[in-house]
C-alpha cells in the first residue's frame, strides 16, 4: 500500500471557515527559521560533521518515544541499540524491522505523525512501514544519509535551524562548542546548556566523586561548602563564556528553602563523609536550587525547571542499559508553595528569569500560569516530553492563555535527541498554534492582524525573549 502525500491541512481545524484562517496563519510562519533552545542533540555531531551510520542509530535508538513503545510490545531494548549499544549492520536491520512490524501500534500517536513527516518530507519514502517494506525503507534511508548533503551541518541548513541548544555536564570542556564558534564556515548558533542536577544531589552515593571532579575542572577546593559553591559559580561563568544562555534543572520536586551557611556547610561535610541523613541531603538540595537562582541573578543564565519525573522506574533496565532509556514516568507536581521561598527572594529581581515546565498538566492553569501572571521573572514553559502531543498542546493553550496570554510563554521546546524529528515537531507546533489562533479569530475574540503577529512572535521573538537569546548573539 502506498500512502498519499502528507495532507497540507493536517492538524488544522475541521470547520472550513476556521481552517481557511488557519491556513493563512500557518502559511505566514511555515518557512520561518527554527529556534530550538532546549534539546539533546550531541554537539560533536555538528563539530565533527560525521556522517550518520544507519537508519536505526539515526531515527530509532536515540528516540525514547519509539523504543519505549516497542519495549512495551515485548521487544528487548538490547535489540534496539538503546543505551549506547553498538549494532552491526544485521542488528540495525533487525531493529528497524521491529519498528516496521509494530508500526500499527503507533497509530494516532505523535510519534507516528513525526515519523511519517520525516519519512516523506526528508527521505521521500511514501510507502507505509510494515514487515514487507522494512528492507525497502531501510535501504531508502541508508541511501539518503550516505550523501554529503545529509551530514549534520547540511541538515542544520536544510532544516533552517538558526539556534540549537544542547544539554551539557558542568564539567564538560565544551570543546565541540568552541570549535563550532571558531569555524567561520558555520553560521548557525549551537549553545551549551548548564545541567548541574547530579552535582546538586548530596544524597547520591557518588556525590564525593562528583564534587572532586568539579574541583579538578574549576580549580576550586570543593572540600568545603564555600569551595563547592565557588566551583559551581566558576563553571557557570565558563559556560557563559562559551555562549550558554540557560541552566537546566530536574529534581524530584521544586521545593525550595534557604539554610544558614553554617547549616549548609555542616550538611555538606556530612554528605562528603557519607553520614548525612536523607532529610539533611534533601534540605541541602532544596537550598542549592535557591543558590542556582541567586547565581542566575549574577551571571544572567535563564533558569529552567522541569520536575515531575520518577527517574529510572525499572531498576533492571537501569542496571542493564543505564539512564534515559525510556522508563522515566511522570508524577504529580506542586509549584506554588514549593517555589515561594525562591520567588520571594528573586521573583522580582530584574535580571532573573525562570521558565517552568511540567509533566503534570493539571498545574498549567492552577499554578504555573498564575505564577507567570504575577512574577516578572516567570514564564510558562511549553508542553514537552509526554505532553508534546497535539491534544495536550491544545489543552495547554486553553489552560494558560486566559491568565497570561501568549507573551509570558516560552515558545515551543522540542526536547529531542532525534535530530531529524526537529523540523516535524516545530512544524506541528506551528500548525496547532495557527489553529488555536484561527478559532479565536473566528469567534471574534482576536483580530486577524493580531493573530498573524502572535503566530510570528510565537516562533521568533517569544522564545528569543524567554531564553534571552540576544545575549552573546554577536559572538
Automatic annotation (TrEMBL):
Family: Belongs to the metallo-dependent hydrolases superfamily. Uronate isomerase family.
Keywords: Isomerase
InterPro entries: Metal_Hydrolase (IPR032466), Uronate_isomerase (IPR003766)
Pfam family, one: UxaC
EC number: 5.3.1.12
Source taxonomy: Bacteria, Bacillati, Actinomycetota, Actinomycetes, Micrococcales
Keyword hit for Isomerase: yes
Enzyme class at the top of the EC tree: isomerase
Gene3D superfamilies: Metal-dependent hydrolases, uronate isomerase, domain 2, chain A
Coiled coil: none
Source domain of life: Bacteria
Functional pathway: Carbohydrate metabolism; pentose and glucuronate interconversion
An annotated Gene Ontology molecular function: glucuronate isomerase activity
Name this protein carries in UniProt: Uronate isomerase
Catalytic activity annotation: aldehydo-D-galacturonate = keto-D-tagaturonate; D-glucuronate = D-fructuronate
Keyword Isomerase (UniProt): yes
